């Protein structure tokens, strides 16, 4: 029974690790060594597509009837103007899929030197991510590179995969190639995989050898007002950081917030590097995507924490590709979480009062 529960976990970890090797090599080859203009997004495009091709190929082979809600689709790659990009992606995805097996990986998962794919097979694999999600059934959700801005800056990004059954996240895997193994040693070794299995805990694994290396069980520690800090977005367009400042004041927080791209914020929370992940909507009508939160949500819960929207309501992973109307996200250890919800409520009331006074 346990072996059955762990099979999807091992496969997801293996697929995410391979995708992380790929994205790290794309960064080294394209971002670091080539002269790119500041606004050139092409490396992240190559990375996004080929990482999705790799992971969906493994899932298509191991769980052929499971649909996938993935961020990317291959439409642009099928046009004549997509030829150069397509060839690059096919080369990178095949290089990754056909690399020698690591301890714990199995050839039956479609990995190893004998498993090269055609361009059509890889484009079809990317398009397996076109599923629309929904209330019932079993499905995967994938963000091949979460934190694209962080990726381009050489900072935090994550390869994120989750399994959802009847709207509930059952498994989450996040690969963070640039995250220090130990936050207390920020210049030390980097590269971690985070794994959470419903009812079986949250773990940090070494990215270099996750299926054979040591698994460290994670538990969110207790915080006081003195030790508490916020984990928040880097990009002002992604979250309302001014609101966070007021919430921090109301909570008596004195430490500066930790700003970090991607779901690495959830990973940092799960191992106690920060006390609260607060993501408030900016008011432009953006709807959060399920792949940006599903793996992080189960990691936080399995590390003993709570995740809700800013009203304290559960996130609903059964609405389709998005989380529906955007009320933000609050994730923290149990005690801290209820205090944050109260502070958020008060900060919203203040904001509403100020708006009324201004005659909005
Ligand atoms: N307007 C707006 N509001 C909220 N969220 C948005 C918005 N636009 C984009 N996104 C999504 O944010 C994902 C990255 O989130 P981060 O927490 O990494 O943001 S930040 O870069 O740290 O600021 C990012 O994920 P990736 O596209 O996978 O990088 C987007 O899905
Ligand atoms: Mg994302
Ligand atoms: Mg992405
Ligand atoms: Mg994106």
From TrEMBL:
<comment type="similarity">
    <text>Belongs to the inositol monophosphatase superfamily.</text>
</comment>
<keyword id="KW-0460">Magnesium</keyword>
<keyword id="KW-0479">Metal-binding</keyword>
<feature type="binding site">
    <location>
        <position position="143"/>
    </location>
    <ligand>
        <name>Mg(2+)</name>
    </ligand>
</feature>
<feature type="binding site">
    <location>
        <position position="292"/>
    </location>
    <ligand>
        <name>Mg(2+)</name>
    </ligand>
</feature>
<dbReference type="InterPro" id="IPR051090">
    <property type="entry name" value="Inositol_monoP_superfamily"/>
</dbReference>
<feature type="binding site">
    <location>
        <position position="146"/>
    </location>
    <ligand>
        <name>Mg(2+)</name>
    </ligand>
</feature>
<dbReference type="InterPro" id="IPR006239">
    <property type="entry name" value="DPNP"/>
</dbReference>
<dbReference type="Pfam" id="PF00459">
    <property type="entry name" value="Inositol_P"/>
</dbReference>
<dbReference type="GO" id="GO:0008441">
    <property type="term" value="F:3'(2'),5'-bisphosphate nucleotidase activity"/>
</dbReference>
<dbReference type="GO" id="GO:0046872">
    <property type="term" value="F:metal ion binding"/>
</dbReference>
<protein>
    <recommendedName>
        <fullName>3'(2'),5'-bisphosphate nucleotidase</fullName>
        <ecNumber>3.1.3.7</ecNumber>
    </recommendedName>
</protein>
<dbReference type="GO" id="GO:0000103">
    <property type="term" value="P:sulfate assimilation"/>
</dbReference>
<dbReference type="InterPro" id="IPR000760">
    <property type="entry name" value="Inositol_monophosphatase-like"/>
</dbReference>
<keyword id="KW-0378">Hydrolase</keyword>
<feature type="binding site">
    <location>
        <position position="145"/>
    </location>
    <ligand>
        <name>Mg(2+)</name>
    </ligand>
</feature>
<dbReference type="InterPro" id="IPR020583">
    <property type="entry name" value="Inositol_monoP_metal-BS"/>
</dbReference>
<feature type="binding site">
    <location>
        <position position="71"/>
    </location>
    <ligand>
        <name>Mg(2+)</name>
    </ligand>
</feature>
């Amino acid at each position: 029974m346990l072996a059955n529960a762990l099979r999807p976990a091992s496969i997801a970890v293996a697929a995410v690790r391979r995708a992380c090797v790929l994205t790290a090599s794309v960064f080294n080859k394209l971002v670091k060594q080539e002269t790119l203009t500041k606004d050139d997004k092409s490396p992240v495009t190559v990375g996004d597509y080929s990482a999705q091709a790799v992971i969906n190929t493994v899932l298509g082979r191991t769980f052929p009837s499971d649909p996938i809600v993935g961020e990317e689709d291959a439409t642009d790659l099928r046009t004549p103007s997509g030829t150069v990009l397509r060839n690059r992606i096919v080369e990178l995805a095949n290089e990754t899929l056909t690399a020698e097996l690591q301890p714990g990986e199995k050839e039956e998962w479609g990995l190893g030197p004998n498993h090269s794919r055609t361009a059509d097979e890889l484009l079809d694999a990317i398009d397996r991510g076109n599923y629309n999600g929904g209330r019932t059934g079993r499905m995967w959700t994938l963000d091949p590179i979460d934190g694209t801005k962080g990726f381009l800056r050489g900072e935090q990004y994550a390869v994120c995969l989750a399994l959802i059954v009847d709207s509930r996240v059952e498994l989450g895997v996040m690969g963070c190639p640039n995250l220090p193994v130990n936050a207390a040693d920020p210049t030390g070794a980097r590269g971690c995989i985070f794994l959470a299995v419903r009812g079986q805990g949250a773990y940090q694994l070494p990215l270099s050898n996750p299926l054979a290396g040591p698994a460290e069980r994670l538990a969110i520690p207790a915080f006081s007002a003195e030790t508490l800090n916020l984990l928040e977005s880097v990009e002002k367009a992604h979250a309302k950081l001014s609101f966070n400042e007021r919430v921090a004041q109301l909570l008596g927080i004195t430490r500066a917030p930790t700003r970090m791209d991607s779901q690495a914020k959830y990973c940092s929370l799960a191992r106690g590097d920060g006390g609260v992940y607060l993501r408030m909507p900016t008011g432009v009508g953006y709807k959060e995507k399920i792949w940006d939160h599903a793996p992080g949500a189960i990691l936080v819960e399995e590390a003993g924490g709570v995740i809700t929207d800013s009203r304290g309501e559960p996130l609903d992973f059964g609405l389709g590709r998005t989380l529906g109307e955007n009320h933000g996200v609050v994730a923290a250890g149990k005690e801290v979480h209820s205090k944050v919800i109260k502070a958020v409520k008060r900060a919203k009331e203040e904001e509403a009062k100020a708006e009324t006074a201004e005659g909005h």
